[in-house]
Sequence to fold (197 residues):
Amino acid sequence: MDTSPRIQMLRRRHHGVVLSGEDCDRLFTWIDLNAPCHGTWSDVYPIPGGVHQDQMAMWAMAGGALEDPEQIPPAEPYRPEPIPHHPKPPQIAKSVEAAARNEGIRPQVAADAGPTRDTVDLGDGTVLELVHIPGDRVRMGADLVGTDEFPPTMVKAAPFWMSICEIPNEPFARFDPAHSSRYDAKRHAREDEPGLP
Fold:
């Protein structure tokens, strides 16, 4: 669940929220179900053809467990314990104001002289177009998320070159001819949709 941005925010005590183990378990289960709708096959539509009854009868004949998977056990009432609120320390708020006032957040400017665009010939007519990202002082950290982002600090970012677009398969094949990106997974109403090549 660490890949979920919302879980990451909650684990960083977003707005002072602290999750208990049971809170996390319920959220993880909800995410695992993707779109919780029902807990058994028969919640929404009846199971046709007496299949469920046949299944229970076969389990009984084979000496298997007689727990009915379609029976929803009664849930114990959820009684969350109050968790103390952890407000943002005042010195952190002051450091945020000082960073904005003293350093400022400047727009990115091409301070260093030189070309802003370049091309790299990869051979066989394949060209990679690059754009120059100038170095500058940037603000790292934030004051609206978890405490692991404090305190916001001004840091020096070195200039670098970056492709003007995502690297397509053709230029990438110049570095790794055996690479295949196969398909990009995406959500569809149809589960058999293979995705984008």
Q: What stands out?
A: Residues 107-173 form one domain. The chain has a mean pLDDT of 76. The beta strands are 117-123, 126-133, 136-140, 153-157, 160-163.
